[in-house]
Every structure is written in structure tokens, then in C-alpha cells.
Design goal:
Elements lengths: L9 H15 L18 E2 L2 E2 L3 H4 L3 H14 L4 H8 L3 H8 L7 H11 L3 H5 L18 E2 L5 E5 L7 E10 L4 E4 L7 E8 L2 E5 L2 E5 L4 E5 L4 E4 L6 E13 L1
Antiparallel strand pairs: 1-2, 3-4, 4-5, 5-12, 6-11, 7-10, 7-12, 8-9, 8-11
Helix pairs in contact: 1-5
Length: 242
């Protein structure tokens, strides 16, 4: 994996200089909603608490993967910004490991690169059996930390199916962009209640209920209850990825 520090792009140099100047006067923005946390940290409203160090764990990983995938496709920062809807400055900061994107921003970048967001956060370099310890899990959260996602599968292997644990806080809503054409989601609610908006319809789910729908259109998850909703999601793609 190439180091962001060796990139000689004038644009990235300008972004890095600007970010450094902001940090020097205490104006550097927070790393956003992509938060890495160990599951052993005491939760707050159902989402694990994090320290500033933990919050930046994934930033260099995402940055290196983004730069590798972008250059492999021959895309400039400007071109990727145009097709993803994420600003060039933000993309530059992400590649430098100075800013971690929210889940929605990560989805936009992944869709533009025609990869899954798991390809952007992968740190796996080995093959064979892999135990995913709950105590070592890294949790992706939305910016306000009301929504969290934990991957329950190894990255960097050819696949058409991914498996996630999702948590949505009481009264919270998570809006998802359309996934690649042919993508489907099969979700089961194990505790709490959930409403899913898809294709103009709203579906109400209780604990034990499941739903299967085409996810290549914008959709939203909403928790109308007073307790956190816990769900497990199987996402299936039309073509093999990874």
C-alpha cells in the first residue's frame, strides 16, 4: 500500500499545507463520522464510545486504499470529485489520512470507484481462516453516532455477499444512497422496531421480522421506538467484487 506521505501531487501538497495551518491555530475540523472503536469500550446510547486516538484508526487505512483505488482507475482528484459528489479538498484530506469520511461519504466514493465501502476500509493481508473477535471489532458510525455498522466478514476476497451488524438509536433515521444496480438487501430485526422507506413505500418491522428489497435506489432506515434497534444485514451484489 502506498504511503500518502510520498504523494507528490501539487493538489495534495496544497491540501496538506492548508490542513497543517488549520491545525496549528486549533481550527482543524474533527475527522467526521467514520469512527473506529473497540467493542469493549462502554457504549453510549448503544454506540461504543471512542477516544480521539481510536477515532483516527481508520483514517490512514481509508486514505491509502482510496489513493490506490483511484490511481488504479486513472482518476484525478478533480475527476473523482465530479463523479462522486465529494469535494476535491475533502478527497485530498482523506487520502492524506487527515480526515475520515462519514458512512454516506464513503458510500459515494465507493460507488464512484465501483467498489464496496469495505474495499476502502480493509486492512487484511492474509488468506485462510480468520476469526473476527468482537473485542477487536471496528465500528463505523454516522456523524451523529446514532447509526453504526460492523462488518461480519473478511475483506479483500472475491465475493458477491456481505454480512453486517447494524444498530440504530431510538428516534434516529439513516438515509442511504442507491447501491450499484442489482444490489439487494436482506435484513432481519433482532431487537427494537424499524421502519424502512424504499421505492416510495414504508415497511414496519418488529423484532423477528425480516425484509428483502432491491437496494439500487435511495432508501432509509428509521427507528420510531424508544430503544435501540439491532439488525443483521446480508447485502448481495449483482457481480462479484473484491
Amino acid at each position: 500500500m502506498a504511503s500518502a506521505g510520498t504523494d507528490k501531487s501539487p493538489e495534495l501538497d496544497r491540501v496538506k499545507k492548508k490542513a497543517t495551518e488549520k491545525a496549528a491555530v486549533g481550527l482543524m475540523p474533527s475527522s467526521g463520522g467514520l469512527v473506529a472503536a473497540t467493542a469493549s469500550v462502554p457504549p453510549v446510547d448503544g454506540v461504543p464510545a471512542v477516544t480521539p486516538t481510536e477515532a483516527t484508526d481508520l483514517a490512514p487505512v481509508v486514505g491509502g486504499n482510496l489513493r490506490r483505488l483511484r490511481t488504479r482507475r486513472g482518476l484525478s482528484l478533480e475527476r473523482l470529485a465530479q463523479i462522486s459528489g465529494v469535494s476535491r479538498a475533502m478527497l485530498g484530506q482523506i487520502e492524506l489520512g487527515q480526515s475520515a469520511p462519514t458512512i454516506n461519504v464513503l458510500w459515494k466514493i465507493a460507488r464512484a470507484l465501483e467498489v464496496t465501502f469495505s474495499a476502502l476500509i480493509s486492512t487484511r493481508t492474509q488468506s485462510g481462516a480468520l476469526v473476527l473477535r468482537a473485542t477487536d471489532a471496528k465500528i463505523l458510525t454516522s456523524k451523529d453516532r446514532s447509526f453504526s455498522s460492523r462488518a461480519l466478514f473478511p475483506f479483500d476476497e472475491p465475493r458477491r455477499v456481505e454480512f453486517y451488524e447494524l444498530r440504530l438509536g431510538a428516534g434516529a433515521t439513516e438515509i442511504a444512497d442507491a447501491h450499484p444496480p442489482g444490489t439487494s438487501e436482506n435484513l432481519v430485526v433482532t431487537s427494537g422496531t424499524l421502519e424502512i422507506d424504499v421505492a416510495g413505500d414504508t415497511h414496519q418491522l418488529e423484532a423477528g421480522d425480516s425484509i428483502l428489497f432491491e437496494a439500487d435506489t435511495p432508501h432509509a432506515y428509521r427507528n420510531p421506538g424508544h430503544d435501540e434497534s439491532l439488525m443483521y444485514l446480508v447485502m448481495t451484489y449483482a457481480e462479484e467484487i473484491g
